[in-house]
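Q: What does the assembled structure look like for these inputs?
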Amino acid sequence: MGSVSLEGATGPFNKVLKINIDKRLTFHAERENMSWRLAKSLVRLRDQVNLAAPNRSKVSDGSIGDQAHAARVSDHNPNAQGVVCAIDVTHDPIHGVDGKIFSRWLISDKRVKYVIFAGEIWKARTGKWEVYTGPNKHNHHVHVSVKAENGDEAQDWTGIGG
Ligand SMILES: [Zn+2]
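A:
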């Protein structure tokens, strides 16, 4: 945005404009300086997936939110403690990560908050798969969100509850 000088600005319109610019600058500064880390359960999960499928594609992988995510609430954005509670794992069945199988394997773990894949979402709150109506169907990656309260539990993911 560069330097914006409103010195000498007068009138109610200019006052509002200045407040808005201050807010935006503060927002950007906070995001750029923010330190963050991935929830420990997701670090463990990613390591396990990489070990099990060393040649898997990572083209649709992700952890921290991009600029588009930053403007809205997403588990890809750091929470108040600076912890990111979601990752995306690329669907690559040829190299060992089949999104359908992987997404069904994940949900037995008590750390999971919700999982999205191929137009379906599973929520811990309801305990079932439902149609996902968000703008991105998640055909190319599995989205995994963990709960803030136990997302830092770093034990192995076993696919048989936990
Ligand atoms: Zn995601």
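Residues 76, 86, 88, 143 surround zinc ion (CB under 6 Å).
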